[in-house]
Amino acid sequence: MTDARGPMDDDLLQDESADESSDTDTDTEADMGTSDDSLPDDSLLDDLADVDAESSPYGDEETAARATRHGNAARLRPTGRGWAVLGAAGGVIAVLGVVGAMSLRGPNAPVAAGGTTSASPAAVSTSAAPSLHIEMSGRAYTAANLATLAQTLLDAPGPHIGIPTVESPSIGPIGTPIGLRECLGTLGESDAPQVAADIATFDGQPAAVIVVVESGIKQVYAVGRTCTKGDPAIIMGPLPMS
Predict the structure, then answer these.
(1) Which DSSP letter does residue 36 get?
(2) pLDDT for the residue 173
(3) Are the beta carbons of 195 and 161 closer than 8 angstroms?
(4) Which positions ≥6 away from 141 have C-beta within 8 Å?
């Protein structure tokens, strides 16, 4: 058969072929994707480089360098086990600090709720020292007026003789606070909160009259001035006072 196409038909065929070729190229580019979103991210590339470096120790220089960088970073990052070790080490240091602080305070130093050291109960006195009054009135006590004059000693005490540093030979040990406390201990009155002593005479002899007050109860003793620890030297008493 004879081809009936003319020159114009050939031109039309060439144009259509060119359009189809252009459309095919456009579709190919669209399928491959030229946008940045379709490209793999850096982390994926790094992971691929790590795998490449591990599987191929003789790879190119860039792959080896990338593997080295990632290996160093992995070694520097603490793993779960590393964090556990660091936490345990911190706990040991804290315990050692507490033990050291307790050893400096001593085994008998209790700790209060706010974290401070409180005084040991043994170091705090539970009973106050008795109130002592010592005077030298010169009264002449007798068995008949002992209770009456003893009440005067409480109601209108005279001048305190002071606190002599040494025992006076004319007064005896009972004229000092230490000596009076020792005498009270021998009499069994060491816990009396209020005590008054008068260096005087009893039936004309040197003596000391001691009044003790405890829980509202008053008693009076007449003792020799030698009353001391182990020797009460009692002349009269204890005599209840009204």
Answers:
(1) G
(2) 87
(3) no
(4) 149, 150, 198, 200, 201, 202, 203, 207, 209, 222
What secondary structure letter does DSSP report for 111? B
Check residue 80 and give its pLDDT.
56
Question: Which residues face 117 on adjacent strands?
Answer: 111
Between CA 142 and CA 95 the distance in angstroms is: 73
Instruction: List, in sequence order, the alpha helices (H) in the chain.
Output: 7-32, 42-55, 61-76, 80-105, 146-155, 177-187
CB contact set of 53 (below 8 Å; sequence gap of 6+)? 59, 63, 64, 66, 67, 68, 70
Using CA atoms in the order 15, 17, 18, 21, what is the torsion angle rounded to 10 degrees?
160
Contact 120, 110 (CB under 8 A): yes
CA 34 – CA 152 distance, rounded (Å): 120
Q: Contact, 138 vs 158, CB < 8 A?
A: no
pTM of the model: 0.48
Q: Which residue has the higher pLDDT, 201 or 27?
A: 201
Angstrom distances, CA of residue 124 to CA of 70, 115, 192 = 67, 20, 19
pLDDT at 160 over 70: yes
Q: Dig out the tokens for 60 from the structure.
A: 């190119």
pLDDT level of residue 49 (50, 70, 90 thresholds):
very low
Residue 74 confidence class, pLDDT cut points 50, 70, 90: very low
Please, what is the angle between helix 61-76 and helix 42-55, to 10°? 100
